[in-house]
Each structure stands twice: as structure tokens, then as C-alpha cells.
């Protein structure tokens, strides 16, 4: 968001001869710090050692924050609560690939520090990450492994503690990646120039590229929704110099903007959006780099996806409640931009969209069917306008166009959970600040040979979870469909209700997403 004049704390990044680049990576959660010494005689110089940075940029201090969100293998349903060491070869390879991608960034090696923040309580994973960090340190990479014994503040607490380290405080730029994100070697060289050209830019946000989008129908549906988010919402916000949110990963922040905005706060579960809002209210601007993609993974199980959507829906609603006074009091942005932030970003996209979808498609249409003699629903409201909006969403992912109908029905089912999360966030109920780490399988990034070996070892009967809310929803919609078909039927609303109830039953019986290994008898 464009502010009047340059904000305070913009830093000396636009000057020639600024300090040298130091890129640090923070994996996540920090209390115990270990520094691995580098050998004097390292390997042959890599491409990042052969020049000093982007052409004509001078030199910069950069800190790359690698946020290690825990990846979990699918545990048997009845045994899921038992704590046991993880020895999943797929996940182990994903961690190695992620750390390797961080260490392989094309940037001068003497100006690159990789900080790995780890909050895992799994001793096998902790040992793996620590050994991997030591291995790269032996190759001459400046890498730090940080681990803290508690998860106070969750991701925000980890980032705050990581940035307090002496070697992090000296850096001018902060790049953030989650554990399942693997940037290309030229990421920094493509992301840093906008920050060099304009000292008023606080953030450069890259888009996500999904390596496991074709795993199952759940990942295909997520790809459609997220492609629209990046191609339309983020692109439009950047092009119009309006506010758009930080996605929490695959972005480069100006350290001065982080400090000017007040740093990381754990008052909500969307600490990334909270930080972006506060920075925009201080007059900082954001840039979206749509041509810069970072490999990532989508959740493959419905349970993990549902927890993620609860956090993504509850957090913004709760943040709106807490940040509203700050938006109204801000004197660095115009009233029109305040209106855009409150109305277009928060009210419409984060609150009304979920509630209207659920109320209209899952309550109003079935209710109108039951009282057709008194209330008639115009077809342009029920069919034509939603169809146009849906087609616009689907244009961003043409390869999944054949899934369009199920995508609509699935989004209507998910609106039940999103609406519930919005209400919890607005009322700040007991689950309003609940943080559940999104489980991911790591299958999209592992080598084919590792995946084949894993599948051979997993000769277990698969068991699907049952979701009661979706089954109740499907039964109610099916009743309305039968009622309409028997007593009315001329408007053909029963066709939609039958399809929508079928989608609810499919989700309710666990046929969306990867299945879970059954517990041994």
C-alpha cells in the first residue's frame, strides 16, 4: 500500500556501497543455538561465489528465515496420538532437499547465513536436521541450527526469537520459507532488485508452485483456488498499489519495515497477515512477483486441509476484530485505502464470502424448496451470477476445468467449516487462537525410487475417516431434494440439491484426499 512519502526506518538499501549481503535462513523455533564451524578449505566455488550480487545493486545485508513447519507421516487412526520417532524416508529426503535448496542459493557464500529454526519434539527429525546442517557447514556454508524447547507464540514467537540473534540483527533483508518450500538458486537475485530500486518497498512476495497438485482430487481443487488467489487477488493488489497479504512464506522482507511495523506478534494465528497490515499502515508498499515461483506442497489429507482452512478463516476474522482500531487511527494512509483494506480485503473476502456461500447454497436454497408456494428464488441469483463468478475462478487453472462442477460443490461443503471458523474468530471463542500444524506427506518432493520403496513397505489395509457434520449436511440436502422432486420439481432445484448432497456424502465418508493407514489389529 502506497503511503505519503517515505516511511521512517526505510534503511540505506537504495544507496550505493551499502553493507554486504548476508542471507540467513530461519527454520523455526529457537532457544538453543548451535553454530557449525566452516572448514578453511571448502569445495570449489559455486556460482553464487563468482560475483557479488544482482547487477548494479551494490551489496546488501539479507537474512533468509527458514521456518521449519513439521511434516508428519500418516499414522494409523487409532495410534495417531502416540508420540513415536519418525523414520519416514520420504520426509527425511524432503528435509534434505529443503536445506539443500537453501544452501544452494546463488549469493556470495561469505555473505550468506542460513538459520534453521526447529520446533520439533521428534528426536529423529531433530537429529536429521542437525546432522544435515553440520554436513553443509562442512562444505563451507555458514549455517546455524536453532531449537527451542517450547512453542510459545508458535511461528511468530519463533521468528521473533530468531531475529533477535546477533548475526540476524545486522541483516537488512529477511527472506522466509517454510520447511516444504524449495526455492530455485536464482531466487534472491530475482526477488531483491525491487527492494533495491525503491526504498519504500517492504515486501516482495513470490507465488507458489505445487509439486503434488496431481496427487488426488483434493490437491487439484486446492490448486484451482490458490492459482486464482495468486493470479488475481495478489496480482491485482500489487498492480493497483493496494494492500495484499503476505502469504507467510516465499517472500523477502525489508528488516527496517519489520521493525517499523512492530515485529512479529502472536495475537492471532495469521501472524503473517497481521504483520503485513501493520506494515501497510506505516506507509510501506508491497510487490508481487508473479513470474517468480517457489516449489511447495499441498496438504493431501482432508483432516489436514480442514485444520488449515479453519486457521486461514478464523485468523483473519479475529485479526479484523483486533486491528480495526489501528486502521481507523492510522494517519499514513488515505481514507480510500483504509476503506479498501476494511471492506474489500477483510469484510468481503475474509468474512462475507464464507458466510454468504454457506447461507445461500446450504440454507437458503433448501429452505426455498420447502416453502416454494410462498417464496420463489430468481434463477439469475441461484444460477447465472454464481456461474460467472465460478468460471472466472476456473480460468486460472484450465487443466482442471473438468473438475469445475465438483470444485463448486466441494467449496460449498467447505463453507460450513469456514463459516464456523469466521464466527469463532469474530467472537474470539476458545478455538480462536488454536494453532494446528498442517500435516504434509512429502510425497510430492521425494525421489521416485524412495516413493516406490515406501509403497512396497506400506502393504496395509487403508481406512477412511468419517466426518459427521458433512454426513448430516448431506442427509438434510438429500431430504430437500426428494421433497422438491416429489411435490414440485418444475424449477429443477432438486438436481443441484442431489449433486450437493452427494458431494457432502463423498467428503463425509472420507473419499476426498489421501487415505490413512489403518491401525494394526
TrEMBL record:
Catalytic activity: GDP-mannose + (glucomannan)n = GDP + (glucomannan)n+1
Residue intervals of the Glycosyltransferase 2-like domain: 174-370
Enzyme class: transferase
Superkingdom as given in the UniProt entry: Eukaryota
Membrane-related topology note: Multi-pass membrane protein
A Pfam family this chain is assigned to: Glyco_trans_2_3
Bilayer-spanning residue ranges: 351-372, 466-487, 493-514
GO cellular component terms given for this protein: Golgi membrane
SUPFAM superfamilies documented for this protein: Nucleotide-diphospho-sugar transferases (SSF53448)
E.C. numbers: 2.4.1.32
Residue ranges, annotated region (Disordered): 1-55
The entry's keywords: Cell wall biogenesis/degradation, Glycosyltransferase, Golgi apparatus, Membrane, Transferase, Transmembrane, Transmembrane helix
Subcellular location: Golgi apparatus membrane
BP terms from Gene Ontology: cell wall organization
An MF annotation (GO) of this entry: mannan synthase activity
Compositionally biased region (Gly residues): 1-14
Family the UniProt entry places it in: Belongs to the glycosyltransferase 2 family. Plant cellulose synthase-like A subfamily.
Function according to Swiss-Prot or TrEMBL: Probable mannan synthase which consists of a 4-beta-mannosyltransferase activity on mannan using GDP-mannose. The beta-1,4-mannan product is the backbone for galactomannan synthesis by galactomannan galactosyltransferase. Galactomannan is a noncellulosic polysaccharides of plant cell wall.
Protein name as annotated: glucomannan 4-beta-mannosyltransferase
Species, as recorded: Panicum virgatum (Blackwell switchgrass)
Amino acid at each position: 500500500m502506497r503511503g505519503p512519502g517515505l516511511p521512517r526506518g526505510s534503511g540505506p538499501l537504495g544507496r550505493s556501497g551499502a553493507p554486504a549481503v548476508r542471507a540467513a535462513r530461519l527454520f523455526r523455533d529457537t532457544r538453543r543455538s548451535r553454530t557449525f564451524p566452516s572448514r578453511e578449505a571448502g569445495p570449489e566455488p559455486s556460482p553464487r561465489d563468482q560475483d557479488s550480487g544482482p547487477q548494479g545493486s551494490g551489496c546488501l545485508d539479507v537474512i533468509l528465515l527458514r521456518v521449519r513447519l513439521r511434516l508428519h507421516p500418516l499414522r494409523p487412526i487409532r495410534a495417531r496420538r502416540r508420540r513415536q520417532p519418525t523414520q519416514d524416508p520420504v520426509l527425511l529426503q524432503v528435509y534434505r532437499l529443503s536445506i539443500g535448496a537453501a544452501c544452494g542459493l546463488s549469493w556470495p557464500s561469505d555473505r550468506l547465513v542460513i538459520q534453521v529454526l526447529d520446533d520439533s519434539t521428534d528426536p529423529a527429525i531433530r537429529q536429521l536436521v542437525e546432522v544435515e546442517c553440520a554436513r553443509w557447514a562442512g562444505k563451507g556454508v555458514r549455517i546455524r541450527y536453532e531449537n527451542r524447547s517450547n512453542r510459545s507464540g508458535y511461528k511468530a514467537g519463533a521468528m521473533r526469537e530468531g531475529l533477535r540473534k546477533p548475526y540476524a540483527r545486522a541483516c537488512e533483508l529477511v527472506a522466509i520459507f517454510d520447511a516444504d518450500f524449495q526455492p530455485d538458486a536464482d531466487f534472491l537475485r530475482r526477488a531483491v532488485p525491487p527492494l533495491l530500486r525503491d526504498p519504500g518497498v517492504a515486501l516482495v512476495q513470490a507465488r507458489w508452485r505445487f509439486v503434488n497438485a496431481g496427487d488426488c482430487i483434493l490437491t487439484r481443487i486446492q490448486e484451482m483456488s490458490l492459482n486464482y488467489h495468486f493470479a488475481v487477488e495478489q496480482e491485482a493488489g500489487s498492480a493497483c498499489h493496494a494492500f495484499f497479504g503476505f502469504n507467510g512464506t516465499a517472500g523477502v522482507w525489508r528488516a527496517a519495515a519489520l521493525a517499523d511495523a512492530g515485529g512479529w506478534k502472536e495475537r492471532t494465528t495469521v501472524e503473517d497477515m497481521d504483520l503485513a497490515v501493520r506494515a501497510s499502515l506505516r506507509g510501506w508498499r508491497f510487490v508481487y512477483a508473479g513470474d517468480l515461483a517457489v516449489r511447495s506442497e499441498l496438504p493431501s489429507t482432508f483432516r489436514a486441509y480442514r485444520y488449515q482452512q479453519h486457521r486461514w478463516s478464523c485468523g483473519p476474522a479475529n485479526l479484523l476484530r483486533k486491528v480495526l482500531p489501528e486502521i481507523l487511527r492510522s494517519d499514513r494512509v488515505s481514507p480510500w485505502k483504509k476503506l479498501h483494506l476494511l471492506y474489500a480485503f477483510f469484510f468481503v473476502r475474509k468474512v462475507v464470502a464464507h458466510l454468504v456461500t454457506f447461507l445461500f447454497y446450504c440454507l437458503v436454497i433448501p429452505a426455498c424448496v420447502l416453502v416454494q408456494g410462498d417464496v420463489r428464488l430468481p434463477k439469475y441469483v441461484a444460477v447465472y451470477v454464481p456461474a460467472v463468478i465460478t468460471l472466472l475462478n476456473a480460468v486460472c487453472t484450465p487443466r482442471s476445468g473438468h473438475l469445475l462442477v465438483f470444485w463448486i460443490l466441494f467449496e460449498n461443503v467447505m463453507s460450513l467449516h469456514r463459516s464456523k471458523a469466521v464466527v469463532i474468530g469474530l467472537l474470539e471463542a476458545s478455538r480462536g487462537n488454536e494453532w494446528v500444524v498442517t500435516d504434509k506427506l512429502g510425497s510430492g518432493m521425494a525421489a521416485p525410487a524412495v516413493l516406490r520403496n515406501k509403497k512396497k513397505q506400506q502393504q496395509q489395509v487403508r481406512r477412511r475417516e468419517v466426518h459427521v457434520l458433512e454426513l448430516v449436511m448431506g442427509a438434510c440436502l438429500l431430504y430437500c431434494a426428494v421433497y422438491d422432486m416429489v411435490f414440485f420439481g418444475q424449477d429443477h432445484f432438486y438436481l443441484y440439491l442431489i449433486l450437493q448432497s452427494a458431494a457432502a456424502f463423498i467428503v463425509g465418508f472420507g473419499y476426498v484426499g489421501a487415505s490413512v493407514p489403518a491401525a494394526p489389529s
